[in-house]
Sequence to fold (1108 residues):
Amino acid sequence: MTGIEAHLPVLQVVVPLLMAPLVILLQPRGLAWAATTATSLMAFLVAVQLTIVVLGGQELYYELGGWSAPYGIALNVDSFSALLLLILTGASTLALLAGKVSIDTQIEAPRQPLFYSAWLLVLAGLAGILVAADAFNIFVFMEISSLASYVLVAGGPDRRALPAVFKYLVMGTIGATFYLIGVGLVYMMTGTLNLLDMEARIHEVADLKPILVAAGFITVGLALKAAVFPLHMWLPGAYTYAPHAVTVFLAACATKVSLYVLLRFDFVVFQQNLVGHDIQFAAFLMPLAVLAILVGSAVAMFETNLKRLLAYSSVAQIGYILLGTSMVSVLGLTASLLHMFNHALAKGTLFLAVMCLALRVTDLNFSHLAGAARQMPWTFGALMLGGLSLIGIPGTAGFISKWYLISAALDEGLLGIALIAVIVIGSLMAVVYIWRIVETTWFKPAVDGNATLSEAPLPMLLVTWFCALANLWFGLAPSLPLRLSGTAAESLLQHLP
Amino acid sequence: MELLGLYHYWVFVVLMMIGFYAIVAKVNLVKRLIGLSLFQSAVFLLYITMSKVTGGTAPILQDGMVDQVFSNPLPQVLILTAIVVGISTTALGLGIVVRIKEEYGTIEEHEIQEINQR
Amino acid sequence: MSAETAILLSLGVPVAGAILIALAGRISPNLREAATLVTAASLIACVWSLLPEIYAGGRPGVQVSEILPGIHIAFQVEPLGMMFAALASGLWLINSIYSIGYMRGNREQNQTRFYVMFAVSLTATIGIAFSANLFTLFLFYEMLTLSTYPLVAHKGDEKTIRSARVYLGILITASIGLFLPAIIWTYSVAGTGDFTPGGILQGHIEGPLVGLLLGLFVFGAAKAAVMPVHRWLPAAMVAPTPVSALLHAVAVVKAGVFTITKVIVYIFGIDFLFAEPSSGWLFYASAFTIIAASAVALRQQNLKRLLAYSTIAQLSYVVMAAAVLKPLAEVGAAIHMLAHAFGKITLFFAAGAIYTASKKTELSQLRGIGRRMPITMTAFTIGALSMIGVPPTAGFVSKWYILAGAFQADNYAALATIILSTALNAAYFLPIIYLAWFEKDNTPAGKEHGEAPFAAVLALVITAALTLGFFVFNAPAVELESQLVKPLMQGQP
Fold:
């Protein structure tokens, strides 16, 4: 399959990109959805194929139009990209497969082709970030995906989505602009935009101060996009008021792609060129990660809206991911990348179950959810499974990444003990807020019409349970994500001096 | 003299900060978008000033040119892209503002929050 | 069947049984009850079939999968686990018979869910008993916590939910906050978590860190109810009595002390721990728990709560015996798991029988009840005497071994604790026996009652007989558990 195989990296981006405008033309009912889902599935298959190639030990390198780097645009797929491509395309496909009914209730039929077109643009944009090997292309794709995701989030019936999207837009644009400034500064000093070329050329740069400034801008800009505490303010509003299928998609992958860029830039370009940067990096990120875990979980414990609770939980989970990277060790990075995968599984399941629930109940505030789960036991079961994975119960995917995180922390001596305490406290807080959900939806006496709810439609349940069982599968047989994360962590770290 | 010679960077910073201030301090959504626009324009300026080479001319090849210094075309191209992105963002932002006006009847942030609390 | 098959079947049978029970529950209650009994009987067949090999010195095992590099789901049967599994499976059958009588007698709701979760809990218990390494044990340990929660919260009313929340909160907090870090710490210093005779920590950890790690394990395994992580036990008394019988005799609490004993013998190693001064605190913590819990039991007026605190004390007998760190005491610890199981399950069966027949729960209501429910109260008396440790009951046998072990270690503090606690046990049990048999009946008119339903009475007769029988027929158990410490008794390293 060497013919097509060589073009896989670009196909990953081009297929959804081409389908996006075409989908707008598909006015008949359900056709737009079908086309989008088919495209997403195809993207997933491409991602799987890329993963297989990468697992065989190769890195895929592709030059657009035959122009070689650093003049031409190059694409690069390695294990880190493959891991995230799987998450991205998988999340998109699952959200679409399960989400048809939900989208039909939340978005009017005439507008649906536009909605699905935006979805494909988000998919194409995020995929583009993951395969791009030069900084400006990353910016372009980042903005494509961000703008399209603003459209997606604003698409729902809840008008509170609009101010939330406005905030998301403003903060996201500031983030992207900061990133652009940083890239500009690096370009000024090195004359190249290709990441690997940058890494080589920075050696020859006389004055490193602009590079340091650039690192700062890029880190802050990407932190904004990745909802790193305290720049996370846009996330709860955006996730809560977006259409439910959109939340499934975005919660599973959007912020992680920004983290991907951050790690790439930092480890490939900056770490080895700025003396002591790894200490700065750790010193900067570690406290933020700790705060994210503690504050995010704490706020989640007191939240009264189910989606917003899970959104704050996401803020905390991003903290876990950053905690692993801030340790700048193989084990820590592996834990971090693994958690990207496992969190996507857990949060995906949770939001899929929420989507099922939302189809039947009046709204997602705790006051209206009492006793709802008793009528919808299958939905509830999936919710529980996702919750257990989030907490990190053994046998679930979340446990594996927690294990690795704690093992990595053990290597850090006294600081590590404090970090372990933070991780454990975070898990216990997760127990509390997951338990609140369970107790409200299952044990409380039913309110309003909750006593006569029917279960969610079968196709939705099937997809939700598929995702839930994937949590169990990867909790008991995590070799695939483990290999990818391990290889990715090693390759990131080998750029270090 | 170094300081004055770098005046274009100062313009960039000042413009950026004005834009940033507008985003953060203003409550009217359109004014915020204006601030965002200013903010992005500042970055465009950074790139473009970056591309100007002393004594350089427009980067267009013509027959018979020899030993000609050109300004760097790459940042100019990058900025074209960024300008397009900026336009899209502003357009989208304004579209959202129009929708907010339809739904809430106001485009002042604090009033919107108040309506949401009710 | 081969030992490996027996091990895997022992885990698979209760799971399959759970599904069967769920399906049967949709058809008819009798079919469901039959499914439960068949599953329990099959489990006994699978588990007990391993006995001959273990007696002969064999240690069959099977590895299921590798989760992470160096971390497997694996099972291995050794004397302690064999005893635990045999106890759990045997008592499950009897408990199921009792449950039938109790649940029907009290016309309880959601009976199918009850029996299904029981089966799942037994799967978890067998998993704990047969685990070959810390990771597998932790996996099934958590499964046990989660699967017993619906059982504890069975009644579903406000008070029950609150107590069940305490139950879950303490167990999960201790597990994730203390037990898990201890496990990861062990894996990272020793490179493995496999249970190995003689322990795996020798040379990898020393000084006060040993005491700290031990503490994380002991308080992390909160199911053993060493103070101060004991509060979940009285909170769990809101459950229906068959659940209390399961918690206090069969699965949960025994899983806790089993874990601690297994960790002491197979992770730390008895000799290693004995030589480490920083581990001495365990003895005092458990002795304190024994005395304090017995003192609190003295003041209880609710029968089940009294039995709960009595259990906390009895569990710390096991921990204290294990902490004496001498071979005879380790045997005593293992035997006491058995003896306490028989006695306590009898006591709980009796308490539940009383409740089913008369709705009585407080001690003051039990005056003269011996004449109304003679079989039940005879069983209760036997159970109580076993708790005190009076021959001819099972409790006497285990106390004997623990005392012998204490002598072997010249541990006079242990001696004193045992004597004092025996006195306290007598102090709160004998008055109950007295007022049940010798005081005048104070049942209000119109609330007369007789014995409990037949199934319940049958069950408690069986367990009372076991309690008495163990006094005579304890040799097989002692011989099995002596294998635990054989190399040490022969003076081998």
Remarks:
- Chains B and C do not touch (no CB pair under 8 Å).
- The longest helix of chain B spans residues 73-104.
- DSSP finds five helices and no strands in chain B.
- The radius of gyration of chain B is 20 Å.
